[in-house]
Model the fold of this input.
Amino acid sequence: MKIQLETIPVWDGLKSGSECFICSLMKEAEIDSIRYYLSSAIMTPEVRVETNTHGFCRKHFSLLAEGNKAQSLGLVMDTYYEEDKKSFYPALEGIAAASNVRKAEKAFSALYKAYDERMGGCLICSRMNDRLYRYSYTVAALFEEDPEFKEELKRSKGFCMHHTRVLYETASDAIKGDVLLEYYKTLADLLKKNLERVQADDYYLTQKYKSENKDKPWNGCEDAAKRAVYKLIGEAEVIDPVRKR
Done:
């Protein structure tokens, strides 16, 4: 399968100097996807079939709810609830008709099994996952094809722990042999070097709050604690894609 390379956003991300430009790109992908499912696209039958069938994860349902697009979200939820009835009502009716506790408990178990299955996919995560794969594939391909990109990457702040794993898992789809080994070592070197840098910044932050250091400069470490968190866990993580690659 030929993968469309995302060279422009990947190069722009690398030049941004962020702690993890894949995180930045994925936050943009998340915003784009939220906007899509709150746009006029939701009026089309094929999109409504998708939303009725797969729905969204808890995080993205919440972001849709906070998107201030009552009409679009209302249409999504009305037909999604209609689909819910097929999954939930048999169990709810079973509880109502139960002649003893055991039967009621069995029906409640069936209800929440159905609920978990309904919450088991997310169209927004799936769209983000597709874009994440293309970004990760592009990073590896550019590492092999573009010497300037390789050198810029080696001088960068690297990636968060989460997206380093995604880049590692994707790499062998794009490159092979000695280049792949060099790429693996580059990812590991970037991770080690930048985890140490972020920890050093975080330590400086802790010391800055001591009274004897109040007149010392911040040296850009005001947000070091937050950066320390996101360097480990990443941002805009794909939680629950419909299609697992």
Residues 177-208 form the longest helix (32 residues). The chain is about 70% helix and 0% strand.
